[in-house]
Amino acid sequence: MTQLFYRLFKPTQANLKDEVLSGLTVALALVPEAVAFSLIAGVSPLIGLYTAFIIGLITSILGGRPGMISGATGAIAVVVVALVVSHGVEYLFAAVVLMGLIQIAVGLLKLGKLIRLVPHPVMFGFVNGLAIVIGMAQFEQFKFTTAAGTVEWMTGNPLYLMIGLVGLTMVIIKFFPKVTTAVPSALVAILTISAIVIFGGIDTRTVGDLASISGGLPEFHIPLVPFNWETFMIILPYSAIMAGVGLIESLLTLTLIDEITETRGHGNKECVAQGVANLTTGLFGGMGGCAMIGQSLINVNAGGRNRISGIVASVGLLIFILFLSSYIEMIPMAALVGLMFMVAIGTFEWASLKVFRKVPFHDVLVMVVVTLVTVFLHNLALAVLVGVIISALVFAWQNAKMIRTRKRVDENGVKHYEVFGPLFFASAMTFGQKFDPINDPEEIVIDFAESRIVDHSGIDAIHKVTERYHKMGKTVYIRHLDSSSKVLLNKAEKIINVNYTDDDPSFKIVLDEEKTMV
């Protein structure tokens, strides 16, 4: 057991100092994010902070991607706000429990591998859109609420001061690594700006101006809702959407961190960990969450490569809540805004702008559409789904145009159609137009050596072709079907009866329903 524990937490790609310091940096950046997302969801700031602690701790220990940070996120907050308004916070807790169970089921069924279906342009669009969203969200800190309750932009000295502190933060983060990499530049920037503001007596917005983060330990709490079918149907739509959004964002973040660290995470393991974390969060009065791409990039860029950094971040956040809240509330928001601006700049795939004229138009279209959906709707799951659908339709259309036939007549007067390209729903009509039943001889052979039947539409296309020949008393033979295509035809024997001939791998298509398989 001791050896297992040692292997689990032993840093293999970074030293302990880097892990601890990067974890502390992330913990500081988690505070305003968790508070902001709580306000978006319409719940107490402490609920968001407890969520960040519980989810961050559990996923750091059990997750499939060491170094990735999870917590309360805006993507989940946007989904749950309607449930909180209509039914109250207790229904939110119940929905988060069900969300966790769904995610555990997805992981146990090993459906995490479906993330492989997300094309690279969708990944580009997702990352770019998220970078823009992260950057745009920071501009809210340049606004203030008047005595009349209206929200207005800062002007004059407060604005210049905010811009100056944000700019100084970004400069420190950018150039401090040239001095030394012994300490994360983000942590140095936060501490430096805090010292300037505190000891200089500068009046600017701080974390404490958002909300108090002081509290005790999270307590076990079974959601106070009726345990009946009506409650289940109320929370199910929200739970399903939260589970989907959470897993998509987590798995895409996992893929991004994989590329940055040149290592490989485990998607299904991460799905289970996310589910366990959300299940636990719901039972401790949390709002649900998932992987956080911004915090994960802060962690990785600061040297966090192992589980220790995530554990330090979550435990550090709890320590802030319990003992250091008065100090954390003194941190100027300008320092954290500057940090998030640098995260947004680092997240954006600037290389994607260089490939606009080097990749097919449809790839550029997918990238732009996913980015726009992410930016304007803030729905990451919908953005990815739209991108995958567009990519799939383009792929289907391109493959549909690849179907073609080469025709020849052998010495026995038998006409051969050699098919090239996949036969599926998009190419079925074109396939049928390749044949000439009226002018063809009594026997024809359709050769699938360079093709395969993909779906029911392909079976139906063969059925229609053979039926046209059958009405004219002509015979059709099928040759060189691959094993998967044979399986499809065998399963469709009620539509098409297949008689295998002695000349394997050829077999004959017969349209007489009274014939049986030989």
UniProtKB/TrEMBL annotation:
The residues covered by the STAS domain are 412-478
Cell location = Membrane
Q: Give the way it sits in the membrane.
A: Multi-pass membrane protein
The membrane spanning regions, by residue number, are 20-40, 46-63, 68-85, 91-109, 121-139, 159-176, 183-202, 232-256, 276-298, 310-328, 335-352, 364-397
Report keywords, A-Z.
Answer: Membrane, Transmembrane, Transmembrane helix
Which superkingdom, per the lineage?
Bacteria
Q: Which GO terms describe its cellular component?
A: membrane
Classification via Pfam families: STAS, Sulfate_transp
Against InterPro entries, the record matches this protein to: Membrane-Transporter-like, SLC26A/SulP_dom, STAS_dom, STAS_dom_sf
Which residues belong to the signal peptide in this entry?
none
Q: Which PANTHER family match?
A: SULFATE TRANSPORTER YBAR-RELATED (PTHR43310)
User: What protein name does the entry list?
Assistant: Sodium-independent anion transporter
